[in-house]
Write a structure and sequence with these properties.
The structure holds 2 protein chains of 2 kinds. Chain A is mostly helical. Chain A has a two-stranded antiparallel sheet. Helix content of chain A is about 80%, strand content about 0%. Chain A is globular, with a radius of gyration of 22 Å. Chain A contains 21 helices and 2 strands. The relative contact order of chain B is 0.13. Classes of the chains: A mainly alpha, B mainly alpha. Chains A and B meet through helix 5, helix 9, helix 10 and helix 13 of A and helix 1 and helix 2 of B.
Chain lengths: ~500, ~60
């Protein structure tokens, strides 16, 4: 594709996004809750859209499409189970996060754990796990766009070397564009600009995917019925479940608890302005998630039906498809994938910077003023984006390992988070030991590789099992921290008072 | 709907979303098998969610 078209499409999108972020800045007040949580004043629609745009990254239109194209219906189950559990977890936990956030002026998920377990170390360990796991995940968003830009354009710009690392110019442009836009939307007005631009991006993501699936159905198959007939008769193996059970469980487990363990989404349980907005957030997310997942998986199956030559790498399925649709449609979809990547990256960056300033800097230097805390958060945003740019340009295979490790690694926080609201006996020692030991074991298994998975089961499975055993076992032989009863009673009373039972 | 009921629903969903495709539907190469089953299970969860959320208060 002519790179000028791509540049024009991106410029238009960039301009709209920057204007939205700039408008959001006009509403920015002072202080930590204002910068990192939009002062807990987001309405239902914006809450729902920022939740959706944050949770659905470029993985959906590239990774999930490729996964469905190559492995069939197992990918549908993997993603649908994510939606099922996210809805149930949001209904159970969003009221408790929201009430605790308001009551104790909590800004980050690790801060919530530190409060419940009455230990700054619980917050620090949890923050370190999040930072370790999410920087590679954020880098992958940049890498995805770098690869997409390289794959979709017909020109080749010269590569150059920096410290012995060969860098492709087009790839670097893709990486810098994602970093730049994410940086602007996070840096300018924090959660307010991120959530507003997220809403804009969520709409683009959904609209583009709907347009694409309609075009593909009618252009390649003569309509939806033709698509169903083609897949059922010529590619029926894709409708059979051929995922090995250990792989299915290994991939699905971290996804099922994603809403609790990924701080960039769980932090969004703090931001709504009312009970009505929390309700709307869950409803909008549910509808968005179902439509987006059905479309992306249908696109994956339909690429198999088109007979287009994709090659060995399934992640090329979407770029190849975009090379065979009208330019305008391809551009809209390209921008939507760009939007998915930047909306996830800006949210992850903002959340990690809140973790850094609130749960690490503030804990090391408790006397720091709120103004300096926000300032340190902004410096951390720049530092995180620079780290991600370096990571993305190294193009290490290790990044792929680290990014799959991210979801499994974060899963070790699930027992501690669930126990914080629903198990009186949960103790500080149980939380700390289960997260630390579980995290190390899970990470070691991922790094060791598939050949070392015990009994063939994935690290996420072993990690969760070990974490639950340690968390329960250690909690039973130690005493719950001071203030546990009070915390639990106050949260439950608040939930009841707001009528969220 | 009480939290205990929601927890019970989550467990039922976990069993149904893995158990049924891996025992009954996985070998059927039709859209109405695993694909539709998982989609319907998600729709059922959304409906349960909506019904539960209707009970939440709007004030304050």
């Amino acid at each position: 594709m002519n790179p000028t078209y791509i540049a024009i499409a991106l410029a238009v999108w960039f301009l709209v996004g920057v204007v939205i972020a700039y408008k959001a800045r006009e509403y920015l007040g002072k202080g930590m809750p204002e910068f990192f949580l939009a002062n807990r004043k987001l309405g239902g629609f914006i809450s729902g859209m920022t939740y959706s745009a944050t949770t659905f990254s470029a993985f959906m239109m590239v990774g999930l499409v490729g996964l469905t194209y190559s492995t069939g219906v197992g990918a549908v189950g993997f993603e649908m189970i994510y939606i099922i559990f996210t809805i149930l977890l949001l209904i159970i936990f969003a009221p408790r996060f929201w009430v605790a956030g308001k009551k104790y002026d909590i800004i980050t998920p690790p801060e919530l754990l530190a409060k419940r377990y009455n230990s700054r170390w619980v917050g620090i360990v949890s923050s370190v796990i999040c930072l370790t796991m999410l920087i590679p995940y954020a880098s992958v968003q940049m890498m995805g766009i770098g690869f997409l830009l390289e794959g979709m354009t017909s020109v080749s710009l010269p590569a150059f070397e920096v410290f012995g690392v060969t860098i492709s110019t087009l790839y670097l442009i893709g990486v810098l564009l994602v970093a730049g836009f994410s940086g602007i939307s996070a840096f300018w007005a924090g959660m307010r600009s991120v959530s507003w631009t997220d809403a804009f991006q969520a709409i683009i993501m959904l609209a583009a995917s709907i347009l694409l699936v309609i075009f593909v159905f009618y252009h390649f198959f003569g309509g939806p019925a033709g698509f169903v007939t083609e897949i059922t008769t010529e590619h029926s193996q894709l409708l059979e479940l051929n995922w090995d059970l250990s792989m299915f469980i290994g991939l699905t487990l971290p996804w099922a608890f994603f809403a609790l363990t990924n701080p960039q989404v769980s932090q969004r349980m703090f931001v709504s302005d009312s009970v009505k907005s929390i309700k709307q957030m869950i409803i909008y997310f549910s509808i968005f998630a179902l439509i987006y997942t059905v479309i992306t998986t249908l696109l994956g199956l339909s690429i198999a039906g088109t007979g287009l030559e994709v090659g060995a790498d399934a992640d090329n399925a979407m770029p190849v498809l975009l090379g065979n649709v009208p330019v305008v449609l391809a551009l809209v979809v390209f921008v939507s994938i760009f939007a998915a990547a930047t909306s996830t990256l800006s949210s992850v960056t903002l959340t990690l910077s809140s973790l850094g300033s609130r749960d690490l800097v503030k804990k090391v230097k408790p006397s720091i003023s709120e103004k300096l805390e926000v300032y340190s958060g902004k410096i951390i945003i720049v530092f995180i984006l620079l780290s991600c740019i370096v990571f993305a340009n190294l193009r290490l295979d290790m990044i792929a390992v680290l990014s799959s490790m991210a979801s499994g690694g974060l899963l070790v926080m699930a027992p501690t988070i669930i126990g914080s609201f629903f198990w009186k006996r949960a103790t500080t020692e149980g939380a700390l030991s289960s997260m630390a030991i579980g995290g190390v074991i899970t990470a070691s298994l991922y790094i060791a590789g598939e050949a070392y998975y015990p009994l063939g089961w994935w690290p996420s499975f072993w990690g969760l099992l070990i974490t639950v055993v340690i968390f329960v076992g250690v909690s039973l032989i130690t005493e719950p921290p001071e203030g546990t009863e009070k915390f639990l009673n106050e949260v439950e009373e608040g939930v009841e008072e707001y009528g969220m039972v | 709907m009480k939290i205990r009921t929601l927890g019970f629903i989550a467990m039922i969903m976990a069993i149904l979303s893995v158990g049924v495709p891996y025992t009954l539907l996985g070998s059927i190469a039709r859209f109405w098998a695993s694909y539709l089953y998982w989609t319907l299970l998600t729709v059922i969860t959304i409906v349960i969610g909506f019904l539960h959320l209707r009970e939440w208060g709007d004030s304050k």
